[in-house]
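Write out a record, focusing on structure:
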Amino acid sequence: MGGSVFGSYFRISTFGESHGGAVGVVLDGVPPGLELSEEEVQIQLDRRKGGQSEASTPRAEPDQVHFMSGVFEGKATGTPILMILYNKDARPQAYDAIKDLFRPGHADHTYLSKYGIRDHRGSGRASGRETAARVAAGAVARKLLEARGVRIFAYSKRIAGIQCPDIDPASFDPAVIERNPLRASDGETAKLMMSEIEKAKADKDSVGGIVECRISGVPAGLGEPVFDKLDALLAHAMLSIGAVKGIEFGTGFGAADLRGSEHNDGMDKKGFLSNHAGGIIGGISNGQEIVFRLVVKPTSSIEKPQKTVGVDGKEHTIVTEGRHDVCILPRIVPVVEAMACLVLEDQLKAAAALKA
């Protein structure tokens, strides 16, 4: 299977299945001598774990990271770092009853069409469990970025039609995000969101929403002007997350209703006067805050009966039982941040190589 490698100068390769023995990542491009501990990586993995609220799966994976190579006496050696997370709460037998049915919204049909074989145990590689490996790698990239003054935070902006007020980036305290179980940017709005999540859960259904990500401290000049635009690379990274179905930068789709005179980011001698472009113009960072939003679909695994087809070609009714998120947004937030970290660290390394 291709498609499990991401990045060029800061490169990752993830492995493992949802209900297999483990998931993990091989990370190449970490400079020798970087102080690195499992505890630092664990901080980000703990943010992604299930069981944190009524919105998330009760699957109790500890997601305890283990360094298997590339780190010696607390420092990176410059060789590939292998991080592994053993699956401790896998229940593959939960999928036996529906192993020959295509679950609506899942990759069951497309995987079988492409490979002629599929892992029916919780989607295998197509499971959101694979993103734990990304978060582990992203934690390393985050440390390198923060040393350069780059700051990244994402949050649930909208869930089930309930939207948080727009934030003022100059005064907003990102610590607010971790003070509510939905990782929303406003605690009071989070309560209304949770009410809708509870209704969906009672109906054996799920909900989606919008995640917003903000990145500060990125220097002007990252990205290439044609195929490897910085916004194109970020879009690639974000759309590689299974539940993400759309992305917009800055004003985004709202630009369709503006005139050029309204959307253009004018300048004076102090800098830009607005940020409708979301910090990227012509595919290259302009030094402003990078802002983008992602559409996250409702979780596909629901217990409400649905129509489907089996591998026998016959019509069936399916109920997907098990331990699934009613809303994936709170747990996708650290995944979004991780992928943004991986793109930016890769681009900064590419820029450094170009100057060398």
Remarks:
- Residues 9 and 350 are 6 Å apart (CA to CA).
